[in-house]
Amino acid sequence: MAAPELTFACTCGTVRGALVGASATEGTRAECFCADCRASEIYARQPDPAPNGVQLFQAMPDQVRFDAGHEQLAVFSLSEKGLLRWQAKCCGAIMFFTMRSPKIPFASIRTDRLTDPDALGPVIARAFVRKPNGKIGHDRLGTFIYRFASRAVSRRISGKWKNTPFFDAETLKPVADIYVLSKDERKAATAA
Ligand SMILES: [Zn+2]
Ligand SMILES: [Zn+2]
């Protein structure tokens, strides 16, 4: 049986592709309430997700296939060492998050970009949630990390980590130049 595929697209439809092997057991559906995820959406002039978090599905880079618009990808980061946030230049939609090196293989896709996110089952982990007592906490983050770590290790052993549309296979550099936000841009995006 062929691995199930879920198609994804940016808002305007120029950047399109599929998440291969898309099922609740091949990734983790999560919602992140951290300030950086929200600031990234605001910087990219996307709708403010608050009070909700940013929903994502943490998959592996070899599960991501671009069918069109790969050259439209731009990448930015909120800080020198921060997560890479991959955006479609055409409409600004934020589509994927990755680490700065392909050696730590993961590619989280914003579930808003998927045609049928519910095929991935319910959200099972929540990060940086404000609890009723006002404190920030996490729900089932341990499950999230454990599931990621076991998948990442298998990719390292099999060599599949090299199979990524986000990095050059030879140089291991990102396929687009990373834009790091200036202090002012970061401030403007977090002041909201
Ligand atoms: Zn976040
Ligand atoms: Zn677009």
Describe it.
- 18% of the residues lie in helices and 30% in strands.
- With 192 residues, the protein is an alpha+beta fold.
- Helix 1 (35-43) crosses helix 3.
- The chain binds zinc ion (2 copies).
How would you describe this structure in keywords?
alpha+beta; 192 residues; nine-stranded mixed β-sheet; 12 strands
What count of helical segments does DSSP give? 3
User: Which ions, cofactors or small ligands are bound in this entry?
Assistant: zinc ion
Mean pLDDT: 93
Strand order of the largest sheet: 11-10-3-4-9-8-7-6-12
**Strand portion, in percent?**
25-35%
Output the structural class: alpha+beta
Q: Using only CA atoms, what is the Rg?
A: 16 Å
Q: Give the terminus-to-terminus CA distance.
A: 47 Å
Q: Into which percent range does the helicity of residues fall?
A: 10-25%
Low-pLDDT residue intervals, each spanning 5 or more residues: none
